[in-house]
Design goal:
With 256 residues, this protein is an alpha+beta fold. The protein folds into two domains: 57 residues, Phosphorylase Kinase, domain 1 (2-Layer Sandwich); 189 residues, Orthogonal Bundle (Transferase(Phosphotransferase), domain 1). The protein is built from eight helices and eight strands; from the N terminus they run E-E-H-E-E-H-H-E-H-E-E-E-H-H-H-H. The strands form three sheets. Strands 1-2-4-3 form a four-stranded antiparallel sheet, with helices on one face. A two-stranded antiparallel ribbon has the order 5-8. A hairpin with a 4-residue loop joins strand 3 and strand 4. Helix 3 runs antiparallel to helix 5 and helix 3 runs antiparallel to helix 8. The longest helix has 26 residues. The chain is globular. The N and C termini lie far apart (52 Å). This is Protein O-mannose kinase. Its main location: endoplasmic reticulum. Keywords: ATP-binding, Endoplasmic reticulum, Kinase, Membrane, Nucleotide-binding, Signal-anchor, Transferase, Transmembrane, Transmembrane helix. It catalyses: 3-O-[beta-D-GalNAc-(1->3)-beta-D-GlcNAc-(1->4)-alpha-D-Man]-L-Thr-[protein] + ATP = 3-O-[beta-D-GalNAc-(1->3)-beta-D-GlcNAc-(1->4)-(O-6-P-alpha-D-Man)]-Thr-[protein] + ADP + H(+). It comes from Carlito syrichta (Philippine tarsier).
């Protein structure tokens, strides 16, 4: 990925350097073309013949850089629980958009650990989030029995959903063909961890976590079908934002 200029604007130029990744690259391009919206980085142009994609440049970079970015003095005014909660709402809005996309229910598969998940998104200059890396978005269609598997290797750790872990124990060697598929509820499992990262450790963020405890606990249900939808989570975040904002406002008035 290169920083370049086009028509006096800074742009990001993505070039394929490894031919074995061509299918992923073309899938990512197709997703960019099909999913253009406020939730996805703006596609400015592309050339399939030489595997080049031109997208809008966001100088603040990956969402994983959020902590370092907000440490800068000039961003201190947005380093608040309110702004951070709005970022979490942005993130859940993107997941909700992918689960109800024009193409059907898409799963954000390139997210087997927190840093990898955060690297799929960019922080914009007005402090919102856009999805950027869309080369691993398989389609779920429960009615036709079409489920997904994120890659062909064994996954480990608490960040991935339980159904993404090898279910047959250490005595049985991993085999991709024996690994059961799953649906979009794997994205829901990861929301509490990503939201906690976005909330950070500023004044008021633990208060927000307390109010989100029940919905986040539901996200971590071992049974995928019992987890809430992204829209359910978004509705809860919205209520918590309004409720806490009103509380803070009334407390400020009382102090005055």
């Amino acid at each position: 990925v290169f920083l370049s200029e086009w028509k006096e604007h800074k742009v990001a130029v993505s070039r394929l350097t490894s031919l074995e990744m061509k299918d992923d690259f073309l899938h990512g391009l197709q997703m960019l073309k099909s999913l253009q919206s406020k939730h996805v980085v703006t596609l400015l142009g592309y050339c399939e013949e030489d595997s080049t994609i031109l997208t809008e440049y966001h100088p603040l970079g990956s969402l994983g850089n959020l902590g370092e970015t907000l440490n800068f003095l000039k961003y201190r005014n947005v380093n608040t629980w309110q702004h951070r909660l709005r970022l979490a709402m942005d993130y859940v809005s993107i997941i909700n958009f992918l689960h109800h996309s024009p193409l059907g229910t898409l799963v954000m598969c390139d997210s087997s650990e927190l840093p990898k998940a955060l690297s799929q998104y960019l922080l914009t200059s007005n402090f919102s989030i856009v999805a950027n890396d869309l080369d691993a978005l398989p389609l779920v269609n429960r009615s036709s029995g079409m489920l997904v598997k994120c890659g062909h290797r064994e996954l480990h750790g608490d960040f991935v959903a339980p159904e993404q872990l090898w279910p047959y124990g250490e005595d049985v060697p991993f085999r991709d063909d024996l690994m059961p598929p799953y649906d979009e509820k794997i994205d829901i499992w990861k929301i509490p961890d990503i939201s906690s990262f976005l909330l950070g450790h500023v004044e008021g963020s633990d208060m927000v976590r307390f109010h989100l405890f029940d919905i986040h606990k539901a996200c971590k249900s071992q049974t995928p079908a019992e987890r809430p939808t992204a829209q359910d989570i978004l509705d809860t975040y919205q209520k918590v934002l309004h409720s806490l904002r009103d509380t803070v406002t009334s407390q400020t008035r009382e102090m005055l």
